[in-house]
Amino acid sequence: MTAPAGPSLQTAPVVVQHPGSWACATTHYCPGCGHGLIHRLVANALDELGVRERTVGVAGVGCAILIYNYLDVDFQEVPHGRAPAAATGVKRARPDLVVFTYQGDGDLAAIGTAEIVHAAARSENITVIYVNNCVYGMTGGQMAPTTLVGQRSETSPEGRDPTTQGHPIRVAEMLATLDGAVYLERVSVTHPENIKVAYRAVRKAFTYQLEGKGFSLVEFLSPCPTNWGMKPVDAMRWIDETVSAYYPLGVIKDREPVHLAHLVQQPPTAFREDYMHGFRYETVTQATEDELGRRTRRVHPFGRRGGRWVSVDGEEYRPSDHDDAEDED
Amino acid sequence: MPLGERVLMKGNEALAEAALKAGCRAYFGYPITPASEITSYMARWMQVEGGTFVQPESEVAAINMVFGAAGTGMRAMTASSSPGISLMSEGVSFLAAAEVPCLIVNIMRVGPGLGGIQPSQSDYFQATRGLGHGDFRVIVLVPANLQEMVDLTFDAFSLAEAYRIPVLLLADGVLGQMMEPVTFTRAIDPASLQEPEWATTGASGRPKRVVKSLYLDPAELEEHNRSLQEKYRRIEQAEVRWKTYALEGARILLVAYGTSARVAYHAMELAEERDIPVGLFRPITVYPYPYDALREVVQQRGIEHILVVELSAGQMVEDVRLAVEGRCPVSFFGRSGGTIPAPLEVLEAIRNVAEELPATGAAPRKGGAS
């Protein structure tokens, strides 16, 4: 027997390989889930930009909380909805790091609305990967703030009724009203052409961060066949035909940052010199020592408006002594 | 300001300055009376010191920003007052579980609910037992004067890092708002601090690191909890702090912390003038609580009655009872907070206790006597 003709595995040209940011772990996601594809796009972008070794991801609570098993980058796993706040902490502490959050629609659009809105308003220089599958996946298919009107779920068994359960939130459009939001795009992963567009969006969002432009968010319309009660192929079709009709794909906002207050330098330090000898410290003089020696304490009413001396000597204490006449400014 | 100079400062500002001098370079704080000056001071000075300051949208965000910043190994903190601390509970539980060191300051005000903005000590249960869900503890430091508050702020960061644990500095509106002379004796250069080996700073030339609290495998989770508990036992062995006053000849022992210890101290002096033999025991850590030290004082000094003074309806008194294990009667005197008892009021409570004591020279009461 002779060996088959052709190059050996060692000499064959590499046509495709795992990104370096990919941890090659066995996935826990259901068949047909969108997270695997989206994780892969993030890993590709980190590789292409060459930032894997200075990236910190922040994982919110949801099916993708275990993303740190699949990406080979540092991660913080934080409370439900709080990823934009924690990411703010990471990025402010270490502006040299590349920081992204990976959040589902329950995490970001329900419990974490305050955090995402204010991270965008402050134009935190972070990248948000927002995965919208119109349902709570991890807890078993309950209604999310993004569940479509009429869509059945565990907690909207007759279909979401807008008269009692409200209307689905279009997060990207909502954030677009904020000056701090720089780049917002909605994409899907339903077929190769959409995946290419999605990848360009992810790469652009990270590039903007590297350029210091400020807050960017990529919203993915992602399938959840398990909780939608659909076959994976039908789930993809439902996104194309129904979900993206309510959540239109495309760039929602892409413009130069309006306000980047955190990049503004502090005024000159001469200010500090004056301040140091005035308000920041008050050197203790003999007079204040004497005052303190009489076992009195100075109590400032709240907000530093005025102040008064209150005796704590038991023999002299009378609640009625505390009249306004004793106040001094 | 040159180090070593004696300066007059407001409590909240002295605390903030101490944190800056301790090398804290990340502050996140939401305004709340009576703790707001800490946030204002940091807003003014943190950037000057080269650190980062954010006023977040809520205390919920504040504590998670602390999580993020401290997770990179930086000395990070937040400060608030009672209702704000309640909002941070979720985050504190995550910080404790993920073993992220940080400083949290509670300048207590009177509750429950919105309550009022006046000083109180009614968050003792919350601080020592109920700061969030799950089996965890945080170190709780309780200063009674501004110099101690400054010194404990330095210690808080060291303790937090040594044990990878959040540290709570528990003071009240009096300590936050009053002015007293303080001396700063040292300043730590943050650049001199080593990056911890667990911090998330980018997986460059090393395996990735994950700061997390989720353990889906029950056995792994139990092991994690066991190791947390083992850490708490080590803290209970090594980090208990307290101070005693005038124990010589004392028959009655006052137990108080923070502002109520100041009031109790004056009441003790007034009692001494009236020949009532009173001493004072002041915990400086309330987790870990000085159970053994208090019990030893009671035993060795032959204390006949304990009077606990608090600005609450009686919270630390439960720890005192746990400490003395029935060796002597434990009475309580407290105002609910907002109103601060005058030393004369405490003196009155001491007198009531003293009247119950057997006359000097008489044999101590035996069990069964009525």
SSE layout:
The complex is a heterodimer of chains A (329) and B (370).
Chain A: H1 35-49, E1 55-59, E2 74-77, H2 83-93, E3 98-104, H3 105-111, H4 113-121, E4 127-132, H5 162-165, H6 171-176, E5 181-188, H7 192-210, E6 215-221, H8 225-228, H9 232-246, E7 250-254, H10 270-280, E8 282-283, H11 286-293, E9 296-299, E10 308-311
Parallel strand pairs in A: 1-2, 1-3, 3-4, 4-6, 5-6
Antiparallel strand pairs in A: 5-7, 9-10
Chain B: E1 6-10, H1 11-21, E2 26-28, H2 36-45, E3 52-54, H3 59-70, E4 76-80, H4 82-98, E5 102-108, H5 124-128, E6 139-141, H6 146-163, E7 166-172, H7 173-177, E8 178-183, E9 210-211, H8 218-238, E10 242-245, E11 252-255, H9 258-273, E12 278-283, E13 285-287, H10 291-301, E14 305-310, H11 316-324, E15 330-334, H12 343-356
Parallel strand pairs in B: 2-3, 2-4, 4-5, 5-7, 6-7, 11-12, 11-14, 14-15
Antiparallel strand pairs in B: 1-8, 6-13, 10-12
What does this structure look like?
The complex is a heterodimer of chains A (329) and B (370). By secondary structure, chain A is of the alpha/beta class. Chain A has two domains: 229 residues, Rossmann fold (3-Layer(aba) Sandwich), CATH 3.40.50; 57 residues, no CATH class. In chain A, the strands form two sheets. Chain A has a seven-stranded mixed beta sheet, sandwiched between helices. In chain A, strand 5, helix 7 and strand 6 form a beta-alpha-beta unit. In chain A, helix 1 packs across helix 7 and helix 3 packs across helix 4. Chain A starts with 34 loop residues before the first helix and ends in an 18-residue tail after the last strand. The C terminus of chain A is likely disordered. By secondary structure, chain B is an alpha/beta fold. Chain B has two domains: 217 residues, 3-Layer(aba) Sandwich (Rossmann fold), CATH 3.40.50.970; 115 residues, Rossmann fold. Chain B contains twelve helices and 15 strands. In chain B, the strands form three sheets. In chain B, strands 3-2-4-5-7-6-13 form a seven-stranded mixed beta sheet, sandwiched between helices. In chain B, strands 10-12-11-14-15 form a five-stranded mixed beta sheet, with helices on both faces. A two-stranded antiparallel sheet of chain B has the order 1-8. In chain B, strand 2, helix 2 and strand 3 form a beta-alpha-beta unit. In chain B, helix 1 packs across helix 2 and helix 10 packs across helix 11. In chain B, 56% of the residues are buried. The C terminus of chain B is likely disordered. Chains A and B meet through strand 1, strand 2, helix 2, helix 4 and helix 10 of A and strand 1, helix 2, helix 3, helix 4 and strand 8 of B.
